[in-house]
Amino acid sequence: MQNNLIIYNSLTKKKELFKPLNEPFVGLYVCGPTVYSDAHLGHARPAVIFDLLYRYLTHLGYKVRYVRNITDVGHLENDADEGEDKIEKKARLEHIEPMEVVQKYLNTYYRNMEQLNTLHPSIEPRASGHIIEQQEFIKTLLEKGYAYEVNGSVYFDVAGYNEKYRYGKLSGRVLEELQNNTRVLEGQDEKRNPFDFALWKKASPEHLMNWPSKWSTGYPGWHLECSAMSIKYLGEEFDIHGGGMDLLFPHHECEIAQSTAALGKESVRYWIHNNMITINGQKMARSLGNFITLDQLFSGNHLVLEQPYSPMTIRFFILQAHYRSTVDFSKEALQAAEKGLQKLLKAIENLNKIKPCASSTVDIDILKKRCYEALDDDLNSPITLSHLFDGVRIVNSLIDGTAKIDESGLKALHELFDTFVFDILGLKDESAGAGDEKLTDDLMKIIIDLRQDAKDKKEWAASDKIRNELKNAGIVLKDMKDGVEWEKE
Asked: Does the structure show a pLDDT above 50 at 230?
């Protein structure tokens, strides 16, 4: 298979030609949500970006095993090793069981992902379902001398690891700087160093989510789950690990350390990170209280919104920016995305009105080549969209008669939009009754033919009545050189 895909590897800090470990198979692991509240716009970006990657790899002919984890235990407040578990805190506030919290918000997350037209992962493991695998991983780290137990908790020895390997190679953090800048916090005095991170935490009596282990009744640390589950489902070495830029440190840095320590080698070949969605220049996040949930966006029920925005508008908004750049949220940006999406879908709809000519003045193959080149260049979706809007301009020129296209070119133009807009970018037509469009088109053709028959018979009153009645119903007929077009007012 021909592959020209270049991706930016966060580990090497450069673009690299993507070469799978075992072509045509690709292992893709993406950090999924911690499910303790409704999904917000910040969750939509990694979901859409890695859906794009999944779709494009599949389109190129790869057999992709896409694994996206669900964090449902061990993620403490402020991403630390102390404090309350985020899910347990929500359970306490809502007076329900922790796993009720997980299921409640996981259901919402799944519904939102369906609305955004993201494909289902191949496997979606939960941290709470892989406690044994995590405990076995800890045993390996203890046996190899990269972890230590204190009072029933187990911590990763970062300084010991750094003697043989380099801690900080992904994030650029230098251990000496961490040693100088990290202060000892209350409750962390049992660690050898304050920057060591928990692999297993002894549960306090009031802690609801806990499991028995040889060290204590407790629960796994947040970072451990991804190493244990990625290796279980993708092997000791796999192709791509993805996630948001906010996970780069400490989460992914700790993953690299514990996996390398356990295996004696790095398990991930390419690290891909999407950047953040910001609002007024600040990261949109639940912890900052400046987030807008996806349900609020879709309904318009939020103080900063003047109208609802459809899921495809949100998807288009995300794809308009390169995944490694920040995207600042504003109502103006969403409105521009809405107009752009409508323009694109209208052009695709108008393709059905174009009749092929004997010759062509447009070259669709060049457009197709440019779309592939854009996606091959580190998934450059905004450039891909710009080329697709070149296709929109071609459609408009064919409609107004300033350009011509032959039958093979028209077929290629249909295929261009079907492939890139719907299959790869994952956009779809959300217009009301989209499933009934063919029936509407067929009925309008019958009406237009009846009106044309009346005109041919010089039955002008009947012809005018059809036009006027349609106008009263909100449909405008346009008599063109090559036939009659109709549109809703």
From this structure: yes
d(CA 253, CA 457): 79
For 362-408, the pLDDT digits (tens) are 999 999 999 999 999 999 999 999 999 999 999 999 999 999 999 99
Q: Tokens at residue 4, please?
A: 């020209």
**Where are any strands of DSSP class E within 151-308?**
153-156, 197-202, 218-220, 238-244, 268-274, 277-279, 282-283
Regarding whether 187 and 61 lie in a shared domain, the answer is: yes
- Per-residue model confidence (pLDDT) at position 186: 46
Q: 135 and 28 in one domain?
A: yes
Q: Are residues 12 and 74 in the same domain?
A: yes
- The answer on pLDDT for 487 being more than 60 is yes
- 473 and 365: one domain? no
pLDDT in tens, 304-327: 888 999 999 999 999 999 999 999
What is the sign, positive or negative, of the torsion defined by CA atoms of 248, 253, 258, 263? positive
CA 115 – CA 475 distance, rounded (Å)? 29
Element (DSSP H or E) covering residue 351: none
Assess if residue 1 is contained within a domain: no
379/477 same-domain check: no
Distances, alpha carbon 259 to alpha carbons 140, 175, 426, in Å: 10, 18, 34
CATH number at 68 reads 3.40.50.620
On whether the CB atoms of residues 199 and 141 are closer than 8 A, the answer is: yes
Is 180 a residue whose pLDDT tops 70?
no
Domain that holds residue 305: 279-424
**Radius of gyration of the chain, Cα coordinates, nearest whole angstrom:** 27
- β-bridge partners, 65: 27
Can you say whether the dihedral through the CA atoms of 349, 350, 356, 362 is positive or negative?
negative
φ and ψ at 278, to 5 degrees?
A: -115, 160
CA distance 174 to 166: 9
DSSP character at residue 420: I
Which residue is listed with tokens 């390419």? 270
Q: Taking the model in full, what pTM does it have?
A: 0.86
The rounded distance, in Å, linking the Cα atoms of 386 and 84 is 47
Is the CB of residue 132 less than 8 Å from the CB of residue 209?
A: no
Do 88 and 208 meet the contact criterion of CB atoms below 8 Å apart? Answer: yes
Helix or strand holding residue 454 (H, E): helix 437-456
Is there a single domain that holds both residue 263 and residue 310?
Answer: no
Nearest to 346 by CA among 386, 308, 399, 298: 399
Q: Which residue type does 23 have?
A: E
Do 126 and 70 touch, CB atoms closer than 8 A?
yes
pLDDT digit string, tens, across residues 411-436 = 999 999 999 999 999 999 988 554 55
